[in-house]
Specification:
about 240 residues; Tetracycline Repressor, domain 2; about 75% helix; extended; mainly alpha; Arc Repressor Mutant, subunit A; 3 domains; 11 helices; single chain
Amino acid sequence: MKVSEQEKQQTRLRLLEAAVAVVTDKGFRQASMREIAERAGVGSATIYNYFPTKESLLYGYCAHVQQQVQAALQAIPDFHEYSLSEQLQQLVETELQAWLPAREFLQEVFRLTFHSPVASHLHLDEARQHYVRMVEDMLAAAIEAGEIPEQAGLALLAGLFWDFQTAVLAYWLRDGSEQFSQTSAMLDRAMAVIAGILETALVGKAMELVSFLFRTHVLSHLDRARQARQTLHKRKRRFMGVADE
């Protein structure tokens, strides 16, 4: 019997939720694909049609969270009328809320990420791209509305905000204060700084400075090195009695 796309999505979601439960109970290393499949009510062979490895389950849930976050933001009445600073802060807070039921699972994600940073970066690409697109849309809308000036390297700027979000999550995982008050205070201070950076296009100016320094210093050194190699080459040819071209 042919399985519909809706049924596939439901099975995929059950597997992700089962992975959260099993990994939270046993830890990533002790969790098995068989147990996750059983928890989801799926055959032990069928799970591999959706997720070939435990790592893909782990990072698949990260991508699922980004979809949840986007849906939650879209459900907020008049969200498009928020200021950019308010939108970005709401994004970070919604991310924290989305991870709250799976906080211990997120700790396993961080452990695996720091254990294998290169591989984890590749696995997290889907989640990262989804998040970055949300931030890019917010930045582009703010520029179009004249709220902030043009920003050089919009994709890079959105990627930096993903890094900031990751740092916030790491801080939150270590926050033992009541109702995570320390995270809230840190976030308020950080967002005030970020708002100032965006309003002055400081990141773009920094990128222009780096580009200028690269052109004027690095490239000039490379040019001098090229000239030195050419001079050495000519001397070697003369020493060997070969006429210069």
